[in-house]
Each structure stands twice: as structure tokens, then as C-alpha cells.
Write a structure and sequence with these properties.
The chain is an all-alpha fold. It is built from 13 helices and no strands. It has a single domain, classed as Cytochrome C Oxidase, Chain A.
Length: 433
């Protein structure tokens, strides 16, 4: 009998069984842009959530630290421009080169700007309580780091020869607006100009962050839905993108006008209502057209669609709030309910869904959402609802705001701990990246 020798293939070098330590390896952060960007973002996400929860709990207990500017202004600046651009960095330099048919970006090229931004935010947060000049210097560092990243992405867009660069171009424009608002915020902190700081934050929210998310939603949600649900088509007419961007920039104009001139005339309020309510209804219809109901059977799609529904809901709430203001000469409104529907609801849920998808797929894991990720998502949704109830029910605003902050903090810190742990470990399938 002839004996045939069998050669056992060696396991992949970086697989858990390949003889290489699968524990924490800081160098893994440089294996891919999403690792480095998301890890920095997870640190900022957890730090900002813990900081604001501590502020609210201290206030409820009768203790308030020293402030160099108003707490709402500090909160708005940090939550708008703190962790979000870091997540955007990880996503843009992972998906962007594929969209534009450009070579992959080395994570090492992003290291210096991201570190400058992290150090800058540490100075900003300390400056909130110690020195406005320290906060201004830190914000200038954040602006410098983000400006370098903007230039890096703009070069990808300008160097691409892909016929379809619309989404990437809109994102690049939004990123430039974000850089400009960061520089303006740094100047406002240095000059102690609270009004300019709040205006810069509003422009950053609507024209940078929300525009960026809406553009990604327009490109990715119908694509993901059609891929997972064969009965759907990847329907994404360009007029819908321009509608979303136009409405978001209109919202920025209204927010800045209200900050600069106070109570707006009744005619302008009704103009806002005439734009916000129809736009909100159209976006809710679009969510249905993209398969929001049919997506519920697939958790990842449900997370993405659930976030997008909040965008339409935020505009409807804004329309109702501005109608109440027009009818009552500014005495009645829905308070901050529309704002938190946008920020915590749309931006927060979409961020959690997209970051979870990228983190899972690029770590060699299944794209299916497990029970832990699903629970964190619904805890975040509970935080959104609690915060909206707090805005609509002033008599119980304090306890509901505290509950919302604790739910948000638990969800985001748990996400940061779980997925941040993945970014410093090798892929479980042994592949590079």
C-alpha cells in the first residue's frame, strides 16, 4: 500500500491560532484607516459622554464647576465637532478610495492630524473650566488637524477620474465647511464671543455634519437595502440628494438668523414651516420607499433605516415648533426636541449603525448584528426618546434629561469599550487590514 504524505497548511500568520499574539497590539491601529480613526473617535465619544453626564449629575446634586463659557455652548460645540469628525475620518479614508478608484490610504498618513485633534480636544475640555485661552488654543489645534485631513481627502477627489464623484464632492465641500467653522470657533473662544461661537456650531451641525450624513445615507442606504432585499431597487435620484442638502443649509440660515437677530418675524417663521413640514414628510416617505418596514427583519438594515427616519421626524418637529412660535409670538415651541431628534436620533443612530458595520466587516466578523450591538442600539434609541420627552415636558425636564444622558452614556461607552478592543487586535480571519 502506497502511503501518501499529507502536508498540513500553516494557519494564517495573524490568525488567533497562527502563533502570533492575538492580544492588544497598538501597531494594529496603523493597519487600516478605520482602525485609527474609529479608535480615536471611540475615545472622544466615551470622554464626551462621561463628561456631560458628570456635569448634569453634579448640577442635579447642587454642584457646578467653574465655566469659561455657558454649559449649553460648550456641550453643543463638543457634541457637534468632537467625536463625529474622527468617525468621519475612519469612514472617508476607508470607503473614499473605493468610491473614487484611488489607491488605499495608509493609516500612518492620518496619525499626526488625528493626534493633534485629540490633544486639541483635551485642551478644549480643560479650557471649558479653566481658561478660555486654553480652549481657544486647543480648538485651533483641532482645526489644524481637520484642515490637514480635508486637504488629504480633497486630493483624492481631485485626482479621481471616476465619472460619478458627486457624493464624494459634496462630502469634500461639507468637510471644508467643517474646517472653516472650527477656525471660527477657535477665534470666537479667543475673543470670548459667545454669539459667534454658537453660530459657528450651528453652521457646523447643519452644513457639515448633517450634510455629510445625509450624503452618505443617500449613497449607502438604498445600496445596502437592495443588496440584502432583492425585491428592492437601489433607487436614489439625485434630486433627492439636492433636496436634503438644500433643506439642511436652509435650516442653518434660520438657526444663525435666530441667534443674530433674536425673535424672527412671523412671516419668516411661516416660511420655515412651509419648507420643513413638506421636506420632513418627503423624507419619511423616502424612508418607506427605501424599505424601512421590510428592513426590520435584518438588524443592520433596521439600524440604518431607524436612524434615517429620525431625519424626517426632526424636520417635522421643527416645522411644528416654528408654527407654534409663529402663532404665539415666540412664547411656545417644542424646545430642543427637534434638535435632539436630529443629533441623537439621526446622527447618533446612523453613526452607531455605520461604525458597527464597518468595524464588524473589517475585523473579519459577520455583518449580522449580534444581541450586544442590537441592545446598545435600542438603548441609544431610548436615550433619544427620553431627551425628546424632557424637551416636551418641562416640569419633568431634569429627571428625563438625566435618564437620557445616562442611557446615552451607557450605550456609547459600552460601544467604545467593545469595538475599541477590536481595533487593537488582528482580524479574526487572519487577513490583513
Amino acid at each position: 500500500m502506497k502511503v501518501i504524505a499529507l502536508k498540513v497548511a500553516a494557519p494564517p500568520q495573524d490568525s488567533p491560532g497562527g502563533g502570533v499574539d492575538s492580544g492588544w497590539q497598538w501597531r494594529r491601529l496603523l493597519d487600516a484607516p478605520h482602525r485609527l480613526g474609529f479608535f480615536c473617535a471611540a475615545l472622544m465619544l466615551a470622554a464626551s459622554a462621561l463628561w456631560w453626564s458628570a456635569v448634569l449629575l453634579g448640577r442635579a446634586a447642587g454642584y457646578s464647576p467653574a465655566w469659561t463659557l455657558t454649559p449649553p455652548a460648550a456641550h453643543a460645540l463638543l457634541m457637534t465637532l468632537g467625536f463625529v469628525p474622527l468617525f468621519i475620518t475612519g469612514f472617508l479614508f476607508t470607503a473614499g478610495p473605493k468610491w473614487l478608484n484611488q489607491p488605499a490610504v495608509a493609516a500612518r498618513s492620518l496619525l499626526a492630524p488625528l493626534l493633534v485633534m485629540l490633544i486639541g480636544w483635551c485642551a478644549v475640555m480643560a479650557g471649558f473650566h479653566l481658561s478660555a485661552k486654553l480652549a481657544a488654543a486647543g480648538m485651533a489645534g483641532v482645526a489644524a488637524g481637520w484642515s490637514a485631513l480635508c486637504w488629504h481627502f480633497a486630493r483624492l477627489v481631485l485626482g479621481s477620474r471616476m465619472p460619478d464623484r458627486v457624493h464624494a464632492s459634496v462630502i469634500a465641500l461639507a468637510c471644508v465647511v467643517g474646517a472653516l467653522t472650527m477656525w471660527v470657533a477657535a477665534g470666537a473662544l479667543a475673543c470670548a464671543s459667545l454669539g459667534v461661537l454658537r453660530a459657528a456650531t450651528q453652521v457646523a451641525l447643519w452644513c457639515f455634519v448633517a450634510t455629510m450624513f445625509a450624503t452618505v445615507s443617500h449613497r449607502m442606504i438604498p445600496f445596502f437595502s437592495a443588496s440584502a432585499l432583492p425585491m428592492l431597487d437601489a433607487w436614489r435620484p439625485m434630486w433627492m440628494l439636492w433636496l436634503m442638502v438644500s433643506v439642511l443649509w436652509f435650516e442653518a440660515l434660520g438657526a444663525v438668523a435666530a441667534l443674530l437677530w433674536g425673535a424672527l418675524p412671523e412671516a419668516l417663521r411661516w416660511t420655515q414651516v412651509a419648507i420643513e413640514l413638506p421636506a420632513g414628510v418627503v423624507l419619511l416617505w423616502l424612508a418607506s420607499r427605501w424599505g424601512a418596514v421590510r428592513s426590520l427583519k435584518i438588524r443592520m438594515l433596521a439600524m440604518l433605516h431607524g436612524g434615517f427616519v429620525w431625519l424626517g421626524a426632526a424636520l417635522v418637529l421643527a416645522g411644528v415648533s416654528h408654527a407654534l412660535m409663529a402663532l404665539s409670538a415666540g412664547e411656545q415651541s417644542l424646545g430642543l426636541a427637534p434638535t435632539h431628534a436630529l443629533t441623537m436620533g439621526y446622527l447618533g443612530a446612523t453613526l452607531l449603525a455605520m461604525a458597527t458595520r464597518v468595524s464588524s466587516g473589517h475585523s473579519g466578523r459577520s455583518l449580522a448584528v449580534d444581541d450586544i450591538a442590537w441592545a446598545l442600539y435600542w438603548l441609544l434609541q431610548a436615550a433619544v426618546l427620553l431627551r425628546i420627552v424632557a424637551a416636551l415636558w418641562p416640569a419633568l425636564a431634569t429627571p428625563f434629561t438625566l435618564l437620557a444622558a445616562l442611557a446615552w452614556t451607557t450605550s456609547t461607552v459600552a460601544w467604545a469599550l467593545r469595538y475599541g478592543n477590536w481595533f487593537v487586535r488582528p482580524r479574526i480571519d487572519g487577513r490583513p487590514g
